[in-house]
Amino acid sequence: MNKKNSILHFFQWICRFNFGDFEREEFKKFLRMGLIFALIIGVYWTLRPLKDSIFIQLVGKFQLPFAKTISVLALLPLVMFYTKLLEKTSREKMLVILPTFYGFSILGFSLLMSLVQDSALELASTSTIASIGLKLLGYFWYLFVESFGSLVVALFWAFAADTTEAVHAKRGFPLVVAIGQIGGIICPYGIGGLPHRLHCKTDFLSMLCLGFLILLIIPLVRYFLKKTPKNLLTTSHGKNEKKEESKQEPGFLEGLKLLLKNKYLLSIFGANFIYEVVVTIFDFNFKVSAGSIYTGVALSNYLSIYGSSVNIVSLLCLLLGISNISRFLGIGIALASMPIIVALALFGFMSVDTLPFLFALMVGSKAINYALNGPALKQLYIPTTPDVKFKAQAWIETFGSRSSKQAGSVFNMTLSPLQKALGSTVGRSTYLTMSGILCFPLLGLWFFLAVFLGKSFKKAVKNDVTIC
């Protein structure tokens, strides 16, 4: 026991420099929370490369914008069902229901893909019906993985915000994200690239491992709730929470109503929306370039290396103290720095057009977002009511993210027609110029939204009141 205490004290001492001083039980709480998040992020970042590589193989790389567009409509009934469950089910049960659904579904997909993926190209070339069936399967797989990223990650952060005080979250959430990056480093390369290293022809093995890992979330959540002291599982929602809750009406559209009638939530939506629009443009060009060079499990392996690289850089950013921007300079500075960073990335995107540069661009854009912008945005939900945390946040992080990707994807649909009409070189040059005309004004708007959010959050926490 003394040895365990010494090890815990040592890590607590190390984390003090980057994340702040933790009380002993508080530190153990965020370690447990970080372990759950590491598993979720590890699975998510392994599924993402498989989502794209399998879709490209079954459907085609230039169909990616259409898949992102369709995902917005496809998620509507799923979020409706998710919201209904939130009304009738406790947060703990939701962290059992969703992993159970996704875990067994992934296992089912793994069996199906083992039968289909290997012969996909051969079947598509010999039968029109088989070709259509494979494309439908590819779209269904793509939408399934998109829903995991939207619902499970959002549910975790809603749960985290609803069990954490603002003063603790300021130092604890960056630590949780840092631990999460470890899962995002190990799983994509270790699991996503495994079939390629073993010279397998399909991604069956990767998907089988992911199914069991998702199911492992359930006992980890139960362990977290059992071992964490009750006083560390509560949060103050401010003096006006009871009054606010009494005015709210249950229902699927409640989250949307909360979002539309409050400028604070609309600003969070706007910050999420603009970032995703710009990065969707980056991401599409990166995937098209990668899909032109790699295929099959080799493409899965390359994109898995990309996923691990994002989390390595993100973890390094956190260990080097990037979270101190939020701690010492405030949430507003952390949020406002992101549009400036993304603007520099956009300038590079318009200037250099090679796969290695696009790889570095995507790694940097994603890593800085996860290390700096992500934890700051999650803290914005702390001075809000539970309905906002679970319902409005679900709308922002599902439809907000999906609709922004749809907007970016609609823009990406112009690349192929432009190249056909103007030629490959001139068409792409026109596309890049148009991307700057669209994105630079959006980044300016994002900057002003970030300043507003930072000021509103600071005032709410200082006065111990809920914003909405």
Shape: globular
Reported for the largest beta sheet, the result is: none
Q: What is the number of helical segments per DSSP (H or I, 4+ residues)?
A: 20
Radius of gyration from the alpha-carbon trace, in angstroms: 22 Å
Q: Could you give the count of β-strands?
A: 0
Distance between the termini: 45 Å
How much of the sequence is in beta strands? under 5%
Q: What is the N-to-C order of secondary-structure elements (H for helix, E for strand)?
A: HHHHHHHHHHHHHHHHHHHH
Low-confidence stretches: 237-251
The helix content, as a percent range, equals over 70%
Give the mean pLDDT.
80
SS-derived structural category: mainly alpha
List keywords for this structure.
single chain, mainly alpha
Spell out the blueprint of helices and strands.
Blueprint: H1 2-19, H2 24-58, H3 64-88, H4 91-116, H5 120-126, H6 128-161, H7 166-192, H8 194-197, H9 204-215, H10 217-227, H11 241-247, H12 254-260, H13 263-291, H14 296-319, H15 324-329, H16 331-351, H17 355-379, H18 386-412, H19 415-422, H20 424-463
Helix pairs in contact: 2-6, 2-7, 2-9, 2-10, 2-14, 3-6, 3-18, 4-6, 4-9, 4-10, 5-6, 6-18, 7-14, 7-17, 12-18, 13-17, 13-18, 13-20, 14-17, 16-17, 16-20, 19-20
